Amino acid sequence: MTSRPTLLALTTAATLALAASLVAALGVPSAAGARVALVLGAWGVFSALVAYLFLPGFDPIPGRMTRHAPGSSTVALTIDDGPHPESTPGILDALERSRVRATFFLVGSAVERWPELARRIVAAGHAIGNHTQRHRLLPFRTTGQLADEIAACQRALAPLAPTGIRWFRPPHGFKPIGLHRELRRHHLRLVSWQGALRDTDAPGVPALVARAEKLAQPGRILLLHDNPNCRGQTAAAIPRIVERYRQLGLEFALLG
Ligand SMILES: [Zn+2]
């Protein structure tokens, strides 16, 4: 039987929380305070597990994740889901015009399909990271599938980065059980973000610039997408976002 450890952990935690609620409702243990502590404790464990799995920036164990850009007046631009012929060229042109280097979290299967575009990203001086081989939701995969999603993307990216790949971001930021063990195996570091512009909604360039302005703070890791769903708006917004951030005294840096 193939193991799906994240689903197993979620099911176990939910079952224990329901069981604790049931026995407390039946009056066990006899002291009311102990029953409240039992129910709150059991649901607290379940909630912490859900938060860890599905909140990209949350990890109760400190030090395992890069959550901030380096420097006291810098932000880091990260661009996920590429390469793609409909979106990558425009984004690369916008970054070049704005003299900004970004970190592209690339999907291995897209790199294999459009290797020229991936090479163009690296040649322009941008950093690249692992965004899995097929962009699947990792919490619902088996242990073997999780290992393959990361390892296959590493193989796809290897020819582009002779000094190795350092950064990893899971699709949607979801962190399955066993993720850190796989990341250690490949010497990868998890990268989160605190600035999601939701550009895949294609809300219009003015809305994207306004969203970015609300997030203008030193240390932010901004998340944009190299994805056709953005309908060219991300590339159009980048120069305006960069200009506004520079007016506010912020500069763009690669991840530390
Ligand atoms: Zn993604």
Quick description:
This protein is an alpha/beta fold and 256 residues long.
Give the total of domains: 2
Instruction: Outline the biggest β-sheet.
Output: 6 strands, parallel
Mean pLDDT: 96
By DSSP, the count of extended strands is 9
CATH topology label of the largest domain? TIM Barrel
Structural class per helix/strand content? alpha/beta
Number of helical stretches of at least 4 residues? 9
Low-confidence stretches: none
H/E topology pattern? HHEEHEHHEHEHEEHEHE
Name of the top-level CATH class of the largest domain: Alpha Beta
Please report the distance between the alpha carbons of the first and last residues.
Answer: 41 Å
Q: What is the radius of gyration?
A: 21 Å
Tell me, briefly, the overall form. Answer: globular
List the ions, cofactors and other small molecules found in this model. zinc ion
What does this structure look like?
The chain is an alpha/beta fold and 256 residues long. The chain folds into two domains: 5-54; 71-252, Glycoside hydrolase/deacetylase (TIM Barrel), CATH 3.20.20. The protein is built from nine helices and nine strands. Strand 7, helix 8 and strand 8 (221-225) form a beta-alpha-beta unit. Helix 3 (88-98) packs parallel to helix 9. The relative contact order is 0.18. The mean pLDDT is 96. Zinc ion binds next to loops. The site of zinc ion has 5 residues, from loops.
